[in-house]
Structures are given as structure tokens and as C-alpha cells.
Amino acid sequence: MKGKWLIASILLFLFTVNTAYASSTPNILKASGEYTVTTDQLNVRSGPSTQHKMIGSLRKGSTIQVTGKTANNWYRFTYNKQEAYVSGAYLKRKTNDQISPAMIAKTKIAKKPIKL
């Protein structure tokens, strides 16, 4: 009888660990681009939900370089050299006519006119 309880306990433990691991590794969809924060303060989290630890915040107008998106509209990016997430409800994708200072800094000006 003790053997059955031990096996049942081990199986329950393994199922619990497996379920917790599965819920902590979100399915990341392909997404990229530069996004701007649209709210006064946006919480940065260690995972894609409000249940995950807050690891920082971004101010309105801050930009992030997105590396992925979850099905529940959380965007992945790098924050202080670690993977982080923010809610997509408070982001706006930058369009081609919105050039960031980083893009301007990378732009090279031709020294000679280009002949067409």
C-alpha cells in the first residue's frame, strides 16, 4: 500500500512541475520592429503577464526594439541585458516616417553628388 502512495505522490509531483514549466515558457510569435510607449509609465516584467515579477518601468515616449510577441499581446525585448516583457496595449509601432535618433546617427551623408 505504501508503494502505491509513493508512486502516486511522485507522479503528482512530476505532473505539477511539468505543468508549472509549461506555463512559464510562453509560445513566442515572430515579431520585430521599434515600438514607442504610449502611457505615462509602463511596467516591465520578467514574463508575459501581470503575474510575473516587475523588473523595471519605461516612461512615455521610450522606444524598445521588439524581439517577439505572445498570443496574449505581450511583447518581448531586451531590458538591462535580460529578456523582458511589456503589454502591447501600451505600445505603438513606429512607422517609416518616424525616424529615431539612432537611425539618424547611422545615416551616412554622401560626400559627392550621386549621378543619376
Automatic annotation (TrEMBL):
Swiss-Prot/TrEMBL keywords: Signal
Residues of the SH3b domain: 32-95
InterPro entries listed in its UniProt record: Cell_Wall_Dynamics_Protein, SH3-like_bac-type
Pfam families: SH3_3 (PF08239)
Residues in the signal sequence: 1-22
Domain of life: Bacteria
Name of the molecule in the record: SH3 domain-containing protein
Organism this protein belongs to: Bacillus kandeliae
Lineage of origin: Bacteria, Bacillati, Bacillota, Bacilli, Bacillales
